[in-house]
Design a protein that fits this description.
The chain is built from nine helices and nine strands. The chain has a domain of 170 residues: Cyclophilin-like (Cyclophilin), CATH 2.40.100. With 246 residues, the protein is of the alpha+beta class. Strands 3-9-1-2-8-6-7-5-4 form a nine-stranded antiparallel beta sheet.
């Protein structure tokens, strides 16, 4: 298995954990330099850490800090409107396609989880991925909030929306992707579409693709939007997502 497909299967919670471990800085402790060396290292690390540019999600939406309370059953059919830096797009969700995914997506949108988040993985012709919260405190709470797999009833065709996962069963949490191309090869690997972009696919197609897969998911998890905005300033993002009344 090669190319974006191989990388795709490494997404999700286990991959995030591995990335975080690989990104840990080398220890600054030792016999030489004493406390002044440690203090200098701490000061340098603090100066190098990006600062958030806006209010953190855990402050704006404190309910996001407790995933166990966001378990409402979704309507059988609903729409979610996303306002992005490239324009509006609307995802229509069919609960009978993938009920666990539909319920999770409904609760994430309704609680403001996707507000002020970035499209951090964008592969032309393949897919665009988002769904790591910009507040590290919120992201940490959801990192292991996995849901059971759904049977795959639909297909990963252009415009269809699916949760990302790892090779492990029941590893879906909050990361979502929108298919750019015909990715029906994913259908046999537990990737169950739960919705479809019914409006604004031109906005989805216009999302900035220049960084590809460069943003590090471990760093996003630990530093949030501060890392992405400092290192990848051209990334597009979601300004706000809401459930559309029907």
């Amino acid at each position: 298995m090669a190319g974006p497909m191989k990388a795709f299967l490494l997404l999700g919670l286990l991959a995030l954990t591995a990335c975080a471990k690989n990104d840990e800085p080398a220890s600054t402790s030792g016999s030489s330099g004493g406390s002044s060396t440690a203090a200098a290292a701490t000061t340098a690390a603090a100066a190098a850490t990006p600062k958030p540019s806006g209010p953190l999600a855990g402050t704006v939406h404190p309910e996001l800090l407790d995933p166990s309370k966001l378990t409402a059953k979704a309507p059988d059919l609903f729409q979610a409107s996303f306002t992005s830096t490239k324009g509006e797009f609307v995802i229509e969700v069919h609960r009978d396609w993938a009920p666990n995914a539909a319920d999770r997506f409904y609760n994430l949108v309704k609680s403001g989880f996707f507000d002020d988040t970035r499209f951090f993985r964008v592969v032309d012709g393949f897919m665009v991925q988002f769904g790591i919260n910009g507040d590290p405190a919120v992201a940490a709470k959801w990192q292991s909030a996995n849901m059971p797999d759904d049977p795959v009833k639909g297909s990963n065709k252009p415009g269809f929306v699916t949760f990302a996962q790892t090779n492990a069963p029941n590893s879906r949490s909050t990361q979502v992707f929108i298919n750019y191309g015909d990715n029906s090869r994913l259908d046999g690997q537990r990737f169950a579409p739960f919705g479809q972009v019914i409006k604004g696919m031109d906005a989805v197609n216009a999302i900035y693709k220049g960084y590809g897969e460069s943003p590090n998911q471990g760093a996003i998890q630990s530093q949030g939007n501060a890392y992405l905005d400092a290192k990848f300033p051209k990334l597009d993002g979601v300004t706000r997502a809401v459930i559309v009344a029907k």
